[in-house]
């Protein structure tokens, strides 16, 4: 695995707010504050340290910042959402001179900025989320608004469409995640989409205060989170949902832990597992489109956490770092930190899982390239059906599963990153843990591996890594829960994206600001925004 920040003129030095890989090729689409959508060819690095990026073309139609772009599953259509509420559908046309994209439809119903959108699996529908506090279900073929979901009390910053077609979900700065179930109603002999709010996830009980007076706490950050995006995602098989922007407290006296929550399809009423993500809030989640075979090492399946006959890989982005997880390991496969000086805005995988890309407010994008079979062997669906009966016999109990704490894998990059896949390792002593740090010695330097032992931690600050034993392998009915959002009142509508996000990040000095110059330090310089070296571990969230 190799990669790093590609320092080219992506969008005239303006923030890159979103990106997406074409599902049938290695073409990367990016968009941002310069109002344009640009296409880039991504080729293998070969003997170089970074994948080769070449400019292809751009689309100019939007008159405001483009916050989200997403290709349809066929790759024939592209949806782009922008400030002001504009939602455009682009169609790919073939001509003698090559392929071109043209505007097919303009969908207007949102009153304010569109922050996120997601296609249905068959590319028939789109769900979009907006600063006007609403979600809209669109019929793409007719170009009409099928349903407006007005249940949130603040900005809708993330939306996701269940790949099985039964649910859609949304995440808002009103500190609630809402899951809607499709209950079609018949009209003139035809069924029409009708999504009804099924679950509202907002608060949870303190797990350490079961015998005391009931105390509830918020699961998510409020509107002060320095990001306009909270991009949640369903797994490719629809077995679970991962929700960013989590903020979890062990008790009233403890500090909040930034996290992403895993919600099982079998129980959509509450998070089942917490993924800790260091010192910055989680802003985006994206799943690898390829499903892999089980490797049989350090298996969470044997612990009863995931009851899956295959392995799913996903990326979790915080404001300043990227975590790569899978459903079989207790620790991240890798953590990339220090790649950008401003907030990360979006992440995407190529369809063949060879590339992972992320965009940032600092005007740059980073690319990671994986070698063939580096992530594992692809899983065959036909093979899965043959093993379905035997795999379904795996049982999960109701007791909390205690997992080992993962060692921190931090990549402090001042340029490029190489060789960042790592296996989980055991603690050498009860109060000691090894941290593996990869330091980059130059722009095109090689990675030097430096194993360092962390100082003994105070027992009082240690946290257990717990997760609820859940079965993610099947669909189940979720109990209907009344909506009860926590509204903080009306907020100002005006936004200044770059200034707001830039000033909110820690550890910024004049020397750290990126103005197009390349990193040239011969030694790795620790950045103030790197993940803290302390035990931050998933906590069981009891009902």
UniProtKB/TrEMBL annotation:
It comes from the Eukaryota. It is found in: Nucleus. WD repeats lie at residues 16-43, 59-100, 107-148, 149-180. Pfam families: Beta-prop_CAF1B_HIR1. Keywords: Chromatin regulator, DNA damage, DNA recombination, DNA repair, Nucleus, Repeat, Transcription, Transcription regulation, WD repeat. GO terms for biological process: DNA recombination; DNA repair; DNA replication-dependent chromatin assembly; nucleosome assembly. GO terms for cellular component: CAF-1 complex; nucleus. SMART domains: WD40 (SM00320). Belongs to the WD repeat HIR1 family. This is CAF-1 p60 homolog. It comes from Phaseolus coccineus.
């Amino acid at each position: 695995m190799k990669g790093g920040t590609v320092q080219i003129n992506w969008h005239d030095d303006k923030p890159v707010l979103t990106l997406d890989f074409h599902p049938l090729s290695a073409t990367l689409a990016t968009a941002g504050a310069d109002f344009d959508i640009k296409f880039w060819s991504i080729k293998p690095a070969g003997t170089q340290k970074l994948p080769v990026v070449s400019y292809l073309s751009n689309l100019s139609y939007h008159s405001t910042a483009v916050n989200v772009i997403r290709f349809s599953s066929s790759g024939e259509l592209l949806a782009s959402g922008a400030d002001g509420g504009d939602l455009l559908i682009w169609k790919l046309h073939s001509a003698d001179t090559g392929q071109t994209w043209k505007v097919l439809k303009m969908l207007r119903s949102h009153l304010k900025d569109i922050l996120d959108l997601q296609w249905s699996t068959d590319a028939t529908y789109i769900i979009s989320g907006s600063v006007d506090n609403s979600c809209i279900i669109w019929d793409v073929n007719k170009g009409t608004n099928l349903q407006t979901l007005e249940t949130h009390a603040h900005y809708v910053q993330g939306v996701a469409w269940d790949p099985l077609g039964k649910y859609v979900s949304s995440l808002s700065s009103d500190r609630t995640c809402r899951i809607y179930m499709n209950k079609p109603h018949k009209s003139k002999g035809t069924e029409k989409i009708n999504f009804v709010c099924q679950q509202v996830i907002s608060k949870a009980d303190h797990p350490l205060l079961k015998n005391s007076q009931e105390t509830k706490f918020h699961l998510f950050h409020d509107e002060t989170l320095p990001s306009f995006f909270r991009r949640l995602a369903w797994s490719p098989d629809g077995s679970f949902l991962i929700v960013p922007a989590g903020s979890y407290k062990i008790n009233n006296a403890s500090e909040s832990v930034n996290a992403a929550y895993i919600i099982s399809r079998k129980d959509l009423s509450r998070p089942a597992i917490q993924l800790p993500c260091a010192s910055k809030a989680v802003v985006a989640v994206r799943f690898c489109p390829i499903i892999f075979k089980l490797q049989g090492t350090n298996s969470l399946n044997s612990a009863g956490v995931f009851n899956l006959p295959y392995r799913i890989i996903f990326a979790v982005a915080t404001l300043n770092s990227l975590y790569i997880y899978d459903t079989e390991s207790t620790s991240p496969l890798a953590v990339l930190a220090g790649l950008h000086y401003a907030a990360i805005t979006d992440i995407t995988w190529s369809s063949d899982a060879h590339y992972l890309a992320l965009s940032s407010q600092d005007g740059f994008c980073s690319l990671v390239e994986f070698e063939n079979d580096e992530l594992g062997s692809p899983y065959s669906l036909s093979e899965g059906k043959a093993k379905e009966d035997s795999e379904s016999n795996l049982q999960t109990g109701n007791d909390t599963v205690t997992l080992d704490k993962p060692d921190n894998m931090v990549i402090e990059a001042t340029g490029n990153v190489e060789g960042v896949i790592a296996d989980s390792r055991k603690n050498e002593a009860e109060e000691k843990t090894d941290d593996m740090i990869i330091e980059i010695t130059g722009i095109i330097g090689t990675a030097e591996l430096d194993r360092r032992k962390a100082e003994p931690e105070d027992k009082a600050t240690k946290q257990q890594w717990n997760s609820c034993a859940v079965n993610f392998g099947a669909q189940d009915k979720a109990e209907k829960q009344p909506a009860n959002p926590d509204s903080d009142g009306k907020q100002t509508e005006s936004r200044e994206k770059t200034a707001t996000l830039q000033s909110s990040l820690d550890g910024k000095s004049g020397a750290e600001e990126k103005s197009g110059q390349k990193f040239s330090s011969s030694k790795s310089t620790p950045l103030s925004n790197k993940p803290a070296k302390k035990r931050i571990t998933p906590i069981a969230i009891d009902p």
